[in-house]
Structures are given as C-alpha cells and as structure tokens.
Amino acid sequence: VDLRVVLVAPRNPLNIGAAARAMANFGFTTLRLVNPYELAFREARSAVGAASILAAAEEFGSLAQAVGDCELVAGATAAARRQLQHPLHRLEAGAQLIRNQPGPVALVFGSEKFGLSNEDMSHCHWLMRIPTADFNLSMNLGQAVAVCLYELIREPGAQPQPGRRKPAKASDIEQITRLLLETLTESGYLNPVTAESSEQKIRRLVRRFDIAAEDAPMILGILRQALWRFRAPRA
Amino acid sequence: VDLRVVLVAPRNPLNIGAAARAMANFGFTTLRLVNPYELAFREARSAVGAASILAAAEEFGSLAQAVGDCELVAGATAAARRQLQHPLHRLEAGAQLIRNQPGPVALVFGSEKFGLSNEDMSHCHWLMRIPTADFNLSMNLGQAVAVCLYELIREPGAQPQPGRRKPAKASDIEQITRLLLETLTESGYLNPVTAESSEQKIRRLVRRFDIAAEDAPMILGILRQALWRFRAPRA
C-alpha cells in the first residue's frame, strides 16, 4: 500500500514519536501532520528509533492539503460517536479495502483529545473502527496507529510453525524407556509385583514427552548416571 | 480466552498504564507484574482509563510464580535475537493457538530495555513474534501489548459494511439527469448540434455518482433553482 499516515493536531510529542515508531516497525514511511502543536513536533523529532520518518514528516495547514494527492481517504476511530454520516467499517474489513487500493491512501487519525471532528470526517471516504470492547474508552493515539498498521501488514494465511525440532526415533525412545524402568526399579519406585502394568504406564508417559532427537543423548546420559549411582557399591 | 497479561520488570509508568489501557480497550482484565520498579507501578496506578485493571494488578517476585496457574505460557517478542531454543510463531498463528487453549493462558512481555531474557523464555512453551519489518527495531511495550491483544480479538470474517445509504431509485436518477441536461443546455455547456452523444455522457456521469435516495431531493432542488435562475427574465 502506498500509505500516508496523517495525524490531525497531535498535542503530545510522545504520541507523535510512538506513531513514527509504529510506522518504522511495520515498514511505512510517509508521515504527515496537520497543525501539530509546534513544541510537540519539535520534541518528537528527537524520539528514538524513527528519526528518519520524523525528519521527513511534512506539516500541513489543513487536512484537505494533507490528503490532496490521495485517491482514498480513510479515517480511523475507536469510538462510535458522531459517525452516522459516514460508512463505518470494522478495521479488519477497512484494511482489506485499503490494501486493494492501487493509488495513494491517507489513513487519518484525530487529535488525542477530541478524535476526528465532523469537519475532519467530511474529508474521508469512510471511517474504520478499531473493534474495541468499550465504545466510550478511546484508544491511545500511538497504540491506535500501531494496531491499524499491524492490520495492514498481517498475513491472513499464517500457520503455526511446526516445532523445528526433529523427533527422536522410536528406538531411542525405547532405549530411554528401558533405562528409565531400570532406574525406577533400582530406586524402589517400581514394585516388582505390579511391574507389568506399571511398565506400560511408564512407556506411555515417555511417549507423551515428545522427546526431540537432539535431546535423547542428554536424557540417556542422565539415566545412565543415575543407574550407575544406584548400582555402585556404597562407600 | 482466559488471559493473564504478564509484564516482566517494567520500568516506565507510561508503559504500564498503556498496557492496562490496551487491555481495557480490548476487553481483558488480568494484569500481572513481575518485579516492577516500585515507583513506576505506583505512578501507573494513577493512569487514566484503566484504573480498575491497574488497581487489581498483582505483583509477583518471579515469572514462575506469575504464570504458575496457567496451562499455556506464550512469550511475545518483536526481535529475532536469542530465539533459537524455542518454537517461534508469527503473531497471527500464535494468537490462533492461544484462542484454541481452553485453560488459562499467560502472555508474557519482557522489559522495555532488554525484552525477554533467556531465563524468562525458559518458562515459555513457545514465543510469538510480532511481524515487524525490521528485526533490530524493538516495539514500544504499550504498542506491542495493544497489537497482540487486538490480534486475539480480531474477527477474521469481518466484511466491509455495505454503505448504509439506500441508493436513489432509477426514476429519481433520471429526473436528476433530465434537469441537469436542461440546466447545461441553458448554461450553454451543451451544444445542441452534438447533443445526443453529450446526453449519453452526462447520463453515465450521473450514474457514476451513486446518488443516495436521501440526497436526491437536495440535488433536484439545486438544479431547479439553477434552471429557474437561467430562465428568469433579467432585471
């Protein structure tokens, strides 16, 4: 996506810095500020981690100018007030529309204190709602930017990684089992009378551990050492 | 999900407050802190918007204690260092595993400065990586918590809302078209010689506007007024 992140009248340098850092985290570069509080903008420029984004950030006198070159203007909001005039998409769906947009897109965030005004919203094609649990609790600006940008880059098809560890061969597992059984017999844990059913319990237990090939030698070493200890003549 | 958000050694009251606010935003309530800097914790408790979560936050002397009652312990990270010992899932996939977990789950975040230590990680079943663009730029703690919690509550199937505006009937659109054509003829924009092809262009243009039913009367009013003006005898 050819995205411009647009902050309207941000007041807090920490929030401007946090927005820029989230952009750096998720690989976006164009930051535009509409009437930022001068001091906030100056202080934000010294923020860690996103210096190049902040140095290149552009300042505009109006939202109309800031979004002038964009083919889609989407407003982000966590609250539900004042939105009846505009189509409102959940973030998941809005992000899809943004990703499908070939031309430049502006993603507009309102000020910390007031959010997007009706005037700001009138420049937006539609609004996108971060699906928060509580309509009345606004989101922190830096966190809202992070969540929206994350949604833009997330991969719907991502699957759990299979554990990268190669499982131990059955023969290694069985060797571990036999050594463990011997050890438990030596320790007195296994009662020779009920040995058969106990053996099966232990065998199943060892299988449930999903022992990795690379861990087998260490486990065997531990058991051999214990056995040696049990069988060694007492001093 | 029965989730506990666990922050290890957080130093900055703003970050503790931001984590709690993100929890409130996305509907989670159980916050646990492992060895927080006393002052940071005390200051965070006065944060806006998430007072009840912070008031109920529990303090622990070790990560082992903080995750003791959990059946799954997942560590969150944005960096890629030091993770070779652990299965590493992308956030999208890890969140799926967490949602599928019936018992209580701990989601563990490292300190702002150092992230999760190897010792911290050794308490985790696996790690979950926020898919940032740059491995070397860590995420802000409050933003990382917000992004992870958002991923846990997002709805994969969310579809763009159809515009809630009812489209105008074809007869209204046609009435608008006729009035516009009359107006353009009166204004001299339409040349009577080439009128037919121009008419079709105008007709298609009006259809592309996707005029809503509720907007039709205003547009008709605008055109009627213009026509009246053109046709009125000059003073």
Q: Report the count of strand segments of chain A.
A: 7
DSSP summary: helix tally of chain A: 10
Indicate the structural class of chain A: alpha/beta
Helix percent band of chain A: 40-55%
Query: Could you give the order of strands across the largest sheet of chain A?
Result: 3-2-1-6-4-7-5
End-to-end Cα distance of chain A, whole Å, is: 75 Å
Order of helices and strands of chain A: EHEHHEHEEHEHEHHHH
Low-pLDDT windows of residues of chain A: none
- Summarize the biggest pleated sheet of chain A: 7 strands, parallel
Question: Could you tell me the mean pLDDT of chain A?
Answer: 86
| Greatest interface (CB-CB under 8 A), with counts per chain | A-B, 47 and 46 residues
Overall body shape of chain A: elongated
Q: How large, in whole angstroms, is the Cα Rg of chain A?
A: 30 Å
